[in-house]
Structure formats: C-alpha cells, structure tokens
C-alpha cells in the first residue's frame, strides 16, 4: 500500500511539474546521456525499506549506463544482499545463511520532455541466484530412545533467468546529477532445488551410531510480476 501511494505521488508530481515547465518558452532540451558518457546510480529503496521496517532486508542495487547515439544507452544493473543469523530458542540453535544476487544487461531509449524532465523505456535480460541455507541443532527426550540430539540441514537454491521490460522517468536538476524512477514487468523462469539432510543420535544406542534421513525436490516455474514502484535511483554522470 505504501509503495502504491509513493508511486501515485511520484507520477502526479512528475507529470504536473513537467507539464508546467513544458509550457515555458525559450527552453531547449538537452541530451540525457551523451555518447560515450557514463552514469552510475544507486537504488535508494534499501534505505526506505529499512526506515519503514528495520527488520526488512532489501538488496543494494546499482545501475551503470553508457550513452549511445540517438538518445540511447546501454545499462548494466547489479544487486546483492547477504544475511547471516544465529537464533537460540529454548532447546534449538538455528543458523540461517541467505544471499541474493542478480545481474542484468539491457538497452533503453530516452525521450526528453524539457531540459529537466524526460522518460525512457527498454528491457533488461536478468540472471539471478537466491540461496537459503538453514542449520538446526536441537534435542528432545523420548521414553523409548532417551535423549535424542538432532542436526538438520535445509538447502534451497533458486536460479532465475528472464526478461524485464521497463518504463522510467528522469529529473535532472543539474547537468551531472539526476534521479530516476522506473516501473518493471518481470518475466522469469525459475529453477528451484531443495535438499534436506537430517542426523539423529540417541543416548539409548550403545554404539553411538547416527540415523540419517534425506529428502528434497526440484521445481521449475514461470513467474510474472509487475512492479509499479522499484525504487528511486540517485545517479551521477561522468
């Protein structure tokens, strides 16, 4: 709900200001990113999510552009996030390792509205990795087996490949600085592998051997997701 509200405010403010400035005479448009020039941006969404909910972890995302002829640019986008946690609850010790990485290469076309505002559209080809590993150590007592110590490992890995069409808007108050906001349509093919290993050791077993259990599954699916708000990029030209 908050992201939809932010999207509505951004679009309303953008079009209102752009139309107001578009009526001014004597203004000339400028090239968004000259040929062979670069811009580097960082997505401010991780800071906003952390402010609204300190328990939320959002990948840090960077966007590198290289200007081409004809108001076009190549774009290289990368994001990543790593989190390690160790929780102890009663008789259970749970260690969680999570990481999420993605890299995308794309192309975009720019259309200036005036010397400060503009819009663009294009598409990215994105490859992603999502890894979630959990280790659990806990114990319980059984009248049959006595004290039982259990170690359990859960490994979930998802690889994704897909196309990301984009539509974005830019505001450039200075020739070397601009902010951009874009909407994305994600079309991904996900390949998920899940593996589970469990080991149990009972004090009632005189030789001290462990029982072992394994399991898992593989899943493949198409995923479609529309993101009307994917964050605000803060960019510098060089």
In whole angstroms, the N-to-C terminal distance is 36 Å
Radius of gyration: 25 Å
* pLDDT averaged over residues: 85
What fraction, in percent, of the residue positions are helical? 10-25%
- Overall structural domain count: 1
Keywords: Signal
Organism: Cyclobacterium lianum
Protein name: Outer membrane protein beta-barrel domain-containing protein
Signal peptide: 1-20
Task: Please outline the helices and strands.
Elements: H1 2-22, E1 38-43, H2 45-52, E2 60-68, E3 72-89, E4 92-112, E5 117-142, E6 146-174, E7 177-202, E8 210-227, E9 232-237
Antiparallel strand pairs: 1-2, 1-9, 2-3, 3-4, 4-5, 5-6, 6-7, 7-8, 7-9
Description of the molecule:
Helices cover 12% and strands 67% of the residues. The chain is mainly β and 238 residues long. It has one domain (2-237). It has an eight-stranded antiparallel barrel with strand order 1-2-3-4-5-6-7-9. Strand 5 and strand 6 form a beta hairpin. It is elongated, with a radius of gyration of 25 Å. The two termini are 36 Å apart. The mean pLDDT is 85. Keywords: Signal. It comes from Cyclobacterium lianum. Residues 1-20 form the signal peptide. This is Outer membrane protein beta-barrel domain-containing protein.
